[in-house]
Amino acid sequence: MSETPPGPVSYASAGVDIEAGDRAVGLMKEWVKKATRPEVVGGLGGFAGLFDASALKRYERPLLASATDGVGTKVDIARRLGVYDTIGHDLVGMVVDDLVVCGAEPLFMTDYVCVGKVYPERVAAIVKGIAEGCVLAGCALVGGETAEHPGLLGPDDFDVAGAGTGVVEADRVLGAERVRAGDVVIAMESSGLHSNGYSLVRHVLFDRAGWSLDREVAEFGRTLGEELLEPTRIYSLDCLALTRTTEVHAFSHVTGGGLANNLARVIPDGLHAGIDRSTWTPGPVFDLVGRAGGVERTELEKTLNMGVGMIAVVPRDSAEAALTTLADRGLGAWVCGEITERDGRDSRDGGNAAVTLRHDYAG
Questions:
Q1: Residues 161, 36 contacting (CB under 8 angstroms)
Q2: Boundaries of each PurM-like C-terminal domain copy (predicted)?
Q3: What pTM did the predictor assign?
């Protein structure tokens, strides 16, 4: 017969602190209130977020777009540095910029924050970053969930995920079916690594090179940790501005898989995108990862964004207007390639490949 466990058993004794969770909700409310839209009904605390769908009546045939994502192992950098109020920008960027690729306006997001132990201020800081990201994206944060998983996660461990919904007019959906030979490819600069490839980056810089996060790096003008924690650029409002001011055929969000693999997703059969590397210089963090780990360029390019976070494919006669719009919004952008007919040559020459990267990077 087993011995009777000493003392009463409770949820708290199992490691879940309901009161701490309630305090976290109280702390995050002020930030969530800032991430709203006129269509949001009610406030934080309900079982579900409410959004007034009558706002969609202005559409002839509204299509709802949905996307979900996380931040990946970049959360480990935030945990090590004890900085929690920027990782939410990464989460929002990864979700809403997938939505806008089809031309959809992001409407609202929900989040999921999973922790080993609820530290109210820490959870509130994470949600603060998510709310700020939603403001930058023009969408609302209508709800979320904070889960405490003692025994599965360590006290300092956490992860974040989110889901978003957007809307686009059916006859304005962007994608491969609109892309034509003669279109040009416009690159929009990234803010750094964004939220992809951190398993490679951490392995190279920490496990192999033995660098510390507080190491000052002259090329960055700041510490390694500050560079690695640089938030993902959020492009949704920039892309929507492009669709209002000029003709756009497709967008491509450059995430896991790199520029070529993601751009290939919006290149139709029979066409080819030739990208000229000499039109830009990747930021120093990409060169550092390559040098520190002896990582070949092909491996870097299929893992990291190499300085380009979003792509727009536009008609040639729309390129100047597109670049002007992006410049007016303070976003660096340039023509990096063009769309041509595939000519049947061997794939090593780009003839049968959807995307080819040519020449060497500038600088």
A1: no
A2: 180-344
A3: 0.91
